[in-house]
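Two entries, shown back to back:
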Amino acid sequence: MSAASNERKFWTDVLGRIRRRTRDDQDAEDLLHTAWLRLFAYRAEHEVREPAAFLVQTAANLAVDRHRQGKRLAREPLESFEGGLEDAAPLQDEVLAARERLRRVQAGLGRLPPRTRQVFVMHKVEGMKLREIAAALGITQSAVEKHVAKAVLFLTEWTEGW
């Protein structure tokens, strides 16, 4: 078997395990991608002996977090109504800090290679799924994942401390 075939089988197996574990066919790819980014960051300082198990467990944890957040958000309108009228608008200093962070991210986007920037914007800004981006650009999904990971890693380091 070729290396590409082995790699494809690995990702297909991991994705199938995530789908079974989370019972979420629609978001399994996004969960896998986010789990892969966490694995990528975690490996910088730790050894991971079983990357597939790490990815599946991380994706399952992410799915639980999403479920809990959805339940909390569903309750919030009632809680905020019962609590009285509150101004939900951010404070002025928070707005200024957010604008500065946005400028920093925009500057960082300008420093990315054009293809990496294009892939990142398609995924994170336009909300396209990884396989959709791969089809639109005529590249492999693995290449899309690597571009997104490269952009996230760079932007995380670029905006650190802001």
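entry 2 starts here
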Amino acid sequence: MPARDLYHDAVVRALVADGWRITDDPLRLSYGARDFYVDLAAELPLAAEKDGHRIAVEVKSFVGASNIRELELAVGQFVLYREVLSRLDPTRQLLLAVPLAIHETLFMEPIGQLMVDTQRIALMVFDPTTEAITRWIR
């Protein structure tokens, strides 16, 4: 099983504060002879007027020496997990959780926008200091 991301616990607390119930930590996906581990799975409780929502969240800190290298790895991992998840659990949406500072810099640059748009990356932006979700970009 992979190591937890630097902001894993902060994202868990942010999701719980936002009303989500963590269902898997991590979410194990098996496809063929391979196992994959998405950092988290969560759901909103069912409400009388609407269906509950189910998500899987891959947390990324972008603390490596190169944000571009971190972006390469995050995009590849996101696309791989999204495709496997679409076959195993198509009702669950995959999101990439990124810190607010990274969203305001890297993901607002043309290269970040290109990846979000062309690779259909859904983002959950969080503030690691306040442990709050600041934005959902689906």
